Amino acid sequence: MKRDQLQIAMFSIHSSPIGELGTKNTGGMSVYIRELARQLGTRGHCVDIYTRLNGSKHNQIIDLYDNVRVIHLSAGNNGYVHKLALYYYLSDFFRALERFKHQENLHYDLIHSHYWLSGRLGSWVQDRWNLPHLVMFHTLGTVKNIAGVADQEPDLRIATEKKLTRTCQRILAPTEREKDNLITYYKAPSEKIGVAPCGVNLDLFQPMDRAAARQCLGFDDNESIVLYVGRFDPIKGIDRLLEAATHLQDHRRLRLVIIGGDGPDTPEYQNLQKMTRKLGIQNTVTFAGRIEQNHLPPYYSAADVLVVPSYYESFGLVGLESLACGTPVVATEVGAMRSILRDGETGQIVTHANPRSLAKAIEIFITGSGAKKVSADMIRASVLKFGWSNVAAAVIDEYDTLFRQMNYEALDNASAKVSSL
Predict the structure, then answer these.
(1) What 3-state class would DSSP assign to 52?
(2) Which residues contact 223 (CB under 8 A, 6 or more apart)?
(3) CATH fold group of domain 210-384
(4) How far is the C-alpha of 13 from the C-alpha of 119, rounded, in Å?
(5) Which of 19, 188, 294, 374 is the most buried (most CB within 10 A)?
(6) Per-domain residue ranges for the chain?
Protein backbone atom coordinates (compact mmCIF):
# COMPACT_ATOMS: atom_id res chain seq x y z
CA MET A 1 0.00 0.00 0.00
CA LYS A 2 1.73 3.15 -1.21
CA ARG A 3 1.06 6.43 0.57
CA ASP A 4 1.92 9.73 -1.10
CA GLN A 5 2.48 11.61 2.14
CA LEU A 6 3.25 10.01 5.48
CA GLN A 7 3.26 11.83 8.80
CA ILE A 8 6.16 10.19 10.66
CA ALA A 9 7.06 10.55 14.34
CA MET A 10 10.74 9.67 14.78
CA PHE A 11 12.24 9.21 18.23
CA SER A 12 15.91 9.69 19.02
CA ILE A 13 15.74 10.52 22.69
CA HIS A 14 19.34 10.24 23.89
CA SER A 15 21.14 11.53 20.79
CA SER A 16 20.17 14.59 18.79
CA PRO A 17 20.46 14.40 15.00
CA ILE A 18 21.92 17.90 15.14
CA GLY A 19 24.39 17.09 17.93
CA GLU A 20 28.18 17.34 17.62
CA LEU A 21 29.36 14.28 15.70
CA GLY A 22 32.19 12.28 17.21
CA THR A 23 31.23 13.09 20.78
CA LYS A 24 30.20 10.48 23.34
CA ASN A 25 26.57 9.95 22.32
CA THR A 26 26.58 11.34 18.80
CA GLY A 27 27.84 9.22 15.94
CA GLY A 28 26.63 7.28 12.93
CA MET A 29 23.08 6.96 14.24
CA SER A 30 22.66 10.73 14.20
CA VAL A 31 23.95 10.90 10.63
CA TYR A 32 21.56 8.11 9.66
CA ILE A 33 18.50 9.83 11.16
CA ARG A 34 19.35 13.21 9.67
CA GLU A 35 20.07 11.93 6.15
CA LEU A 36 17.11 9.55 6.07
CA ALA A 37 14.75 12.28 7.25
CA ARG A 38 16.06 14.68 4.61
CA GLN A 39 15.40 12.15 1.85
CA LEU A 40 11.93 11.37 3.20
CA GLY A 41 11.21 15.10 3.26
CA THR A 42 12.22 15.56 -0.37
CA ARG A 43 9.67 12.88 -1.28
CA GLY A 44 6.88 14.84 0.39
CA HIS A 45 6.72 12.88 3.65
CA CYS A 46 6.61 14.92 6.87
CA VAL A 47 9.02 13.91 9.62
CA ASP A 48 9.07 15.17 13.20
CA ILE A 49 12.23 14.02 15.01
CA TYR A 50 11.71 14.12 18.77
CA THR A 51 14.81 14.36 20.93
CA ARG A 52 15.62 15.37 24.48
CA LEU A 53 16.37 18.99 25.29
CA ASN A 54 19.97 19.00 26.55
CA GLY A 55 20.92 22.52 27.56
CA SER A 56 19.21 25.67 26.32
CA LYS A 57 21.09 26.42 23.11
CA HIS A 58 18.38 25.11 20.77
CA ASN A 59 14.87 26.36 20.08
CA GLN A 60 12.15 23.88 20.88
CA ILE A 61 11.31 23.47 17.18
CA ILE A 62 13.94 23.61 14.44
CA ASP A 63 13.02 23.38 10.77
CA LEU A 64 15.88 21.16 9.64
CA TYR A 65 14.95 20.50 5.99
CA ASP A 66 11.85 20.71 3.83
CA ASN A 67 9.12 18.79 5.70
CA VAL A 68 11.56 17.84 8.50
CA ARG A 69 11.53 19.27 12.03
CA VAL A 70 13.60 18.54 15.14
CA ILE A 71 11.49 18.95 18.27
CA HIS A 72 13.15 19.24 21.69
CA LEU A 73 11.20 18.11 24.75
CA SER A 74 12.16 18.10 28.42
CA ALA A 75 13.11 15.00 30.40
CA GLY A 76 14.81 15.47 33.75
CA ASN A 77 16.79 18.63 34.39
CA ASN A 78 17.66 19.25 30.69
CA GLY A 79 21.34 18.89 31.51
CA TYR A 80 23.64 15.93 30.98
CA VAL A 81 22.09 12.60 31.94
CA HIS A 82 23.82 9.25 31.47
CA LYS A 83 22.09 7.11 28.86
CA LEU A 84 20.97 4.47 31.34
CA ALA A 85 19.69 7.05 33.84
CA LEU A 86 17.68 8.58 31.01
CA TYR A 87 15.46 5.48 31.05
CA TYR A 88 13.95 6.69 34.30
CA TYR A 89 13.03 10.05 32.74
CA LEU A 90 11.21 8.55 29.76
CA SER A 91 7.85 9.02 31.50
CA ASP A 92 8.62 12.77 31.76
CA PHE A 93 9.38 12.83 28.04
CA PHE A 94 6.20 10.91 27.27
CA ARG A 95 4.06 13.41 29.19
CA ALA A 96 5.79 16.32 27.40
CA LEU A 97 5.18 14.57 24.08
CA GLU A 98 1.49 14.11 24.83
CA ARG A 99 1.11 17.79 25.74
CA PHE A 100 2.94 18.92 22.61
CA LYS A 101 0.89 16.68 20.32
CA HIS A 102 -2.35 17.93 21.85
CA GLN A 103 -1.34 21.61 21.72
CA GLU A 104 -0.22 21.38 18.10
CA ASN A 105 -3.13 19.10 17.06
CA LEU A 106 -0.72 16.64 15.45
CA HIS A 107 -1.57 13.31 13.85
CA TYR A 108 0.86 10.66 12.65
CA ASP A 109 0.75 7.54 10.50
CA LEU A 110 3.62 5.65 12.07
CA ILE A 111 6.36 5.69 14.71
CA HIS A 112 10.01 5.09 13.80
CA SER A 113 12.17 4.64 16.91
CA HIS A 114 15.97 4.64 17.02
CA TYR A 115 17.86 2.77 19.79
CA TRP A 116 16.38 0.86 22.70
CA LEU A 117 15.57 3.90 24.85
CA SER A 118 13.53 5.46 22.07
CA GLY A 119 11.98 2.07 21.38
CA ARG A 120 10.73 1.90 24.97
CA LEU A 121 9.11 5.30 24.57
CA GLY A 122 7.78 4.24 21.18
CA SER A 123 6.06 1.23 22.72
CA TRP A 124 4.07 3.50 25.04
CA VAL A 125 3.20 5.80 22.16
CA GLN A 126 2.27 2.80 20.02
CA ASP A 127 -0.30 1.76 22.61
CA ARG A 128 -1.61 5.26 23.40
CA TRP A 129 -1.87 6.51 19.81
CA ASN A 130 -2.75 3.14 18.27
CA LEU A 131 -0.07 3.45 15.58
CA PRO A 132 2.27 0.97 13.89
CA HIS A 133 5.76 1.03 15.37
CA LEU A 134 9.04 0.30 13.56
CA VAL A 135 12.24 0.01 15.63
CA MET A 136 15.86 0.24 14.54
CA PHE A 137 18.17 -0.69 17.41
CA HIS A 138 21.46 0.46 15.76
CA THR A 139 23.40 -1.66 18.29
CA LEU A 140 22.35 -4.61 20.44
CA GLY A 141 23.24 -4.88 24.12
CA THR A 142 23.82 -8.64 24.03
CA VAL A 143 26.24 -8.40 21.11
CA LYS A 144 28.16 -5.58 22.83
CA ASN A 145 28.48 -7.77 25.92
CA ILE A 146 29.78 -10.67 23.85
CA ALA A 147 32.49 -8.36 22.47
CA GLY A 148 33.54 -7.93 26.10
CA VAL A 149 35.65 -4.77 25.78
CA ALA A 150 33.53 -2.16 27.55
CA ASP A 151 31.32 -1.94 30.62
CA GLN A 152 28.66 -4.61 30.46
CA GLU A 153 25.33 -3.45 29.11
CA PRO A 154 22.68 -3.74 31.86
CA ASP A 155 20.03 -6.41 32.07
CA LEU A 156 17.46 -3.62 31.77
CA ARG A 157 18.62 -2.81 28.25
CA ILE A 158 18.68 -6.41 27.09
CA ALA A 159 15.27 -7.20 28.61
CA THR A 160 13.82 -4.07 26.96
CA GLU A 161 15.29 -5.00 23.56
CA LYS A 162 13.90 -8.52 23.82
CA LYS A 163 10.46 -7.22 24.73
CA LEU A 164 10.51 -4.70 21.88
CA THR A 165 11.22 -7.43 19.32
CA ARG A 166 7.94 -9.04 20.44
CA THR A 167 5.76 -5.95 20.79
CA CYS A 168 6.72 -3.65 17.90
CA GLN A 169 5.23 -4.32 14.48
CA ARG A 170 8.48 -4.27 12.50
CA ILE A 171 12.24 -4.18 13.04
CA LEU A 172 14.74 -2.60 10.68
CA ALA A 173 18.27 -4.03 10.58
CA PRO A 174 21.16 -2.49 8.60
CA THR A 175 22.73 -5.84 7.61
CA GLU A 176 21.86 -9.50 7.28
CA ARG A 177 24.36 -10.14 10.08
CA GLU A 178 22.40 -7.89 12.44
CA LYS A 179 19.20 -9.63 11.42
CA ASP A 180 20.83 -12.94 12.33
CA ASN A 181 21.88 -11.47 15.69
CA LEU A 182 18.28 -10.45 16.41
CA ILE A 183 17.04 -13.94 15.60
CA THR A 184 19.83 -15.78 17.43
CA TYR A 185 20.02 -13.78 20.65
CA TYR A 186 16.52 -12.29 20.96
CA LYS A 187 14.40 -14.91 19.16
CA ALA A 188 12.96 -12.14 16.99
CA PRO A 189 10.58 -13.45 14.32
CA SER A 190 12.40 -13.50 10.99
CA GLU A 191 9.34 -12.33 9.05
CA LYS A 192 9.18 -9.19 11.22
CA ILE A 193 12.72 -8.03 10.32
CA GLY A 194 13.53 -6.00 7.23
CA VAL A 195 17.06 -5.19 6.05
CA ALA A 196 18.01 -1.79 4.61
CA PRO A 197 21.62 -0.56 4.62
CA CYS A 198 23.06 2.70 5.89
CA GLY A 199 24.05 5.26 3.28
CA VAL A 200 26.51 7.95 2.31
CA ASN A 201 26.11 11.52 1.12
CA LEU A 202 27.66 11.24 -2.34
CA ASP A 203 27.46 14.99 -2.92
CA LEU A 204 29.53 15.73 0.17
CA PHE A 205 31.95 12.80 0.12
CA GLN A 206 33.88 12.97 -3.15
CA PRO A 207 37.53 12.34 -4.08
CA MET A 208 39.90 15.29 -3.85
CA ASP A 209 43.44 15.54 -5.16
CA ARG A 210 45.51 13.90 -2.40
CA ALA A 211 48.38 16.40 -2.55
CA ALA A 212 45.95 19.33 -2.43
CA ALA A 213 44.06 17.79 0.49
CA ARG A 214 47.30 17.29 2.42
CA GLN A 215 48.48 20.81 1.73
CA CYS A 216 45.12 22.14 2.93
CA LEU A 217 45.44 20.20 6.21
CA GLY A 218 49.14 20.89 6.75
CA PHE A 219 50.29 17.30 6.16
CA ASP A 220 53.48 16.48 4.26
CA ASP A 221 53.10 14.93 0.84
CA ASN A 222 55.56 12.12 1.61
CA GLU A 223 53.88 10.98 4.84
CA SER A 224 52.00 7.70 5.16
CA ILE A 225 48.71 8.78 6.68
CA VAL A 226 46.50 6.30 8.51
CA LEU A 227 43.11 7.69 9.55
CA TYR A 228 40.57 6.88 12.29
CA VAL A 229 37.18 8.64 12.46
CA GLY A 230 34.69 7.98 15.22
CA ARG A 231 33.72 8.19 18.86
CA PHE A 232 36.17 7.48 21.70
CA ASP A 233 34.42 4.37 22.96
CA PRO A 234 36.17 1.10 23.92
CA ILE A 235 33.94 -0.80 21.47
CA LYS A 236 35.57 1.19 18.63
CA GLY A 237 38.93 -0.56 19.14
CA ILE A 238 41.20 2.50 19.12
CA ASP A 239 43.43 0.67 21.62
CA ARG A 240 44.38 -2.03 19.13
CA LEU A 241 44.87 0.54 16.38
CA LEU A 242 47.42 2.30 18.60
CA GLU A 243 49.13 -1.04 19.28
CA ALA A 244 49.13 -1.76 15.55
CA ALA A 245 51.05 1.48 15.02
CA THR A 246 53.93 0.07 17.07
CA HIS A 247 54.37 -2.60 14.35
CA LEU A 248 54.58 0.08 11.66
CA GLN A 249 57.39 2.15 13.13
CA ASP A 250 59.80 1.10 10.38
CA HIS A 251 57.83 3.57 8.26
CA ARG A 252 59.53 6.65 9.64
CA ARG A 253 57.07 9.01 7.94
CA LEU A 254 54.00 7.32 9.44
CA ARG A 255 51.26 9.58 10.81
CA LEU A 256 48.19 8.17 12.56
CA VAL A 257 45.43 10.80 12.54
CA ILE A 258 42.60 10.26 15.05
CA ILE A 259 39.39 12.27 14.62
CA GLY A 260 36.64 12.40 17.24
CA GLY A 261 36.16 12.68 20.98
CA ASP A 262 34.77 15.23 23.41
CA GLY A 263 37.98 17.19 23.88
CA PRO A 264 41.33 16.97 25.70
CA ASP A 265 39.85 17.33 29.19
CA THR A 266 37.87 14.08 29.00
CA PRO A 267 39.06 10.80 30.56
CA GLU A 268 38.76 9.01 27.21
CA TYR A 269 41.09 11.46 25.49
CA GLN A 270 43.58 11.45 28.35
CA ASN A 271 43.64 7.65 28.49
CA LEU A 272 44.45 7.47 24.78
CA GLN A 273 47.19 10.09 25.17
CA LYS A 274 48.63 8.10 28.05
CA MET A 275 48.57 4.95 25.93
CA THR A 276 50.49 6.63 23.10
CA ARG A 277 53.22 7.64 25.56
CA LYS A 278 53.36 4.15 27.05
CA LEU A 279 53.72 2.64 23.57
CA GLY A 280 56.29 5.24 22.53
CA ILE A 281 54.25 6.48 19.55
CA GLN A 282 53.27 9.93 20.84
CA ASN A 283 55.18 11.58 17.99
CA THR A 284 53.40 9.41 15.43
CA VAL A 285 49.81 10.11 16.54
CA THR A 286 47.89 13.31 15.79
CA PHE A 287 44.67 13.88 17.72
CA ALA A 288 42.73 16.17 15.40
CA GLY A 289 39.73 16.50 17.72
CA ARG A 290 36.12 16.64 16.62
CA ILE A 291 35.70 17.63 12.97
CA GLU A 292 32.37 18.76 11.51
CA GLN A 293 31.09 16.29 8.97
CA ASN A 294 31.26 18.75 6.08
CA HIS A 295 34.99 19.20 6.81
CA LEU A 296 35.78 15.48 6.79
CA PRO A 297 36.27 14.88 3.01
CA PRO A 298 39.77 16.44 2.89
CA TYR A 299 40.87 14.12 5.71
CA TYR A 300 39.58 11.04 3.91
CA SER A 301 41.22 12.16 0.66
CA ALA A 302 44.52 12.98 2.37
CA ALA A 303 44.77 9.53 3.95
CA ASP A 304 46.37 6.45 2.45
CA VAL A 305 43.87 4.30 4.32
CA LEU A 306 41.02 4.55 6.83
CA VAL A 307 40.99 1.98 9.63
CA VAL A 308 37.82 0.64 11.29
CA PRO A 309 39.30 -1.38 14.19
CA SER A 310 36.00 -1.91 16.04
CA TYR A 311 35.05 -4.88 18.16
CA TYR A 312 31.43 -4.37 17.12
CA GLU A 313 29.57 -2.22 14.59
CA SER A 314 26.01 -2.63 13.41
CA PHE A 315 27.11 -1.20 10.04
CA GLY A 316 30.24 1.03 9.93
CA LEU A 317 29.18 4.29 8.29
CA VAL A 318 32.66 5.87 8.15
CA GLY A 319 33.76 3.04 5.86
CA LEU A 320 31.27 4.21 3.24
CA GLU A 321 32.38 7.83 3.62
CA SER A 322 36.02 6.90 3.05
CA LEU A 323 35.27 4.77 0.00
CA ALA A 324 33.10 7.52 -1.46
CA CYS A 325 36.18 9.77 -1.22
CA GLY A 326 38.25 7.14 -3.05
CA THR A 327 40.27 6.02 -0.02
CA PRO A 328 40.57 2.30 0.83
CA VAL A 329 39.50 0.86 4.19
CA VAL A 330 41.11 -1.67 6.51
CA ALA A 331 38.48 -3.07 8.86
CA THR A 332 37.80 -5.80 11.33
CA GLU A 333 35.01 -8.18 10.37
CA VAL A 334 32.17 -6.06 11.74
CA GLY A 335 28.92 -4.65 10.41
CA ALA A 336 28.71 -4.42 6.64
CA MET A 337 32.48 -4.40 6.05
CA ARG A 338 32.57 -7.88 4.53
CA SER A 339 29.92 -6.97 1.97
CA ILE A 340 31.21 -3.52 0.98
CA LEU A 341 34.98 -4.16 0.77
CA ARG A 342 36.86 -6.03 -1.94
CA ASP A 343 40.02 -7.44 -0.37
CA GLY A 344 43.21 -6.11 -1.89
CA GLU A 345 41.34 -3.56 -4.02
CA THR A 346 39.03 -1.24 -2.09
CA GLY A 347 40.25 -2.44 1.28
CA GLN A 348 41.08 -5.39 3.49
CA ILE A 349 39.16 -7.35 6.10
CA VAL A 350 41.21 -8.44 9.12
CA THR A 351 39.71 -11.70 10.33
CA HIS A 352 42.11 -12.25 13.24
CA ALA A 353 41.84 -8.75 14.62
CA ASN A 354 44.97 -8.56 16.74
CA PRO A 355 47.26 -5.50 16.43
CA ARG A 356 49.90 -7.31 14.37
CA SER A 357 47.33 -8.53 11.81
CA LEU A 358 45.85 -5.06 11.67
CA ALA A 359 49.30 -3.61 11.02
CA LYS A 360 49.96 -6.07 8.17
CA ALA A 361 46.72 -5.08 6.47
CA ILE A 362 47.49 -1.37 6.90
CA GLU A 363 50.94 -1.91 5.44
CA ILE A 364 49.45 -3.20 2.20
CA PHE A 365 47.97 0.22 1.52
CA ILE A 366 50.74 2.48 2.81
CA THR A 367 53.41 0.62 0.83
CA GLY A 368 51.32 -0.41 -2.18
CA SER A 369 52.71 -3.94 -1.96
CA GLY A 370 50.11 -6.66 -2.42
CA ALA A 371 47.30 -4.27 -3.30
CA LYS A 372 45.81 -4.05 -6.76
CA LYS A 373 46.16 -0.57 -8.22
CA VAL A 374 42.67 0.88 -8.11
CA SER A 375 41.88 4.52 -8.85
CA ALA A 376 39.98 6.74 -6.45
CA ASP A 377 37.10 6.89 -8.93
CA MET A 378 36.90 3.08 -9.06
CA ILE A 379 36.88 2.87 -5.26
CA ARG A 380 34.09 5.45 -5.16
CA ALA A 381 32.12 3.56 -7.80
CA SER A 382 31.96 0.55 -5.48
CA VAL A 383 29.62 2.41 -3.08
CA LEU A 384 27.42 4.43 -5.45
CA LYS A 385 24.48 2.15 -4.71
CA PHE A 386 24.61 3.30 -1.08
CA GLY A 387 23.47 6.85 -1.85
CA TRP A 388 20.90 8.03 0.67
CA SER A 389 18.22 8.24 -2.03
CA ASN A 390 18.46 4.46 -2.51
CA VAL A 391 18.47 3.87 1.25
CA ALA A 392 15.37 6.02 1.72
CA ALA A 393 13.59 4.07 -1.03
CA ALA A 394 14.40 0.82 0.81
CA VAL A 395 13.09 2.23 4.11
CA ILE A 396 9.88 3.42 2.44
CA ASP A 397 9.42 -0.13 1.15
CA GLU A 398 9.70 -1.28 4.77
CA TYR A 399 7.03 1.21 5.78
CA ASP A 400 4.80 -0.18 3.03
CA THR A 401 5.44 -3.71 4.28
CA LEU A 402 4.53 -2.58 7.79
CA PHE A 403 1.19 -1.14 6.61
CA ARG A 404 0.42 -4.29 4.63
CA GLN A 405 1.11 -6.42 7.69
CA MET A 406 -1.15 -4.23 9.80
CA ASN A 407 -3.95 -4.54 7.24
CA TYR A 408 -3.58 -8.32 7.13
CA GLU A 409 -3.76 -8.47 10.92
CA ALA A 410 -6.86 -6.27 10.93
CA LEU A 411 -8.53 -8.51 8.34
CA ASP A 412 -7.59 -11.63 10.30
CA ASN A 413 -9.01 -10.15 13.49
CA ALA A 414 -12.21 -9.16 11.72
CA SER A 415 -12.54 -12.66 10.25
CA ALA A 416 -11.98 -14.20 13.66
CA LYS A 417 -14.74 -12.05 15.15
CA VAL A 418 -17.14 -13.00 12.36
CA SER A 419 -16.28 -16.69 12.80
CA SER A 420 -17.01 -16.50 16.51
CA LEU A 421 -20.55 -15.16 15.96
Answers:
(1) strand
(2) 214, 253, 254, 255
(3) Rossmann fold (3.40.50)
(4) 9
(5) 188
(6) 7-199+388-420, 210-384
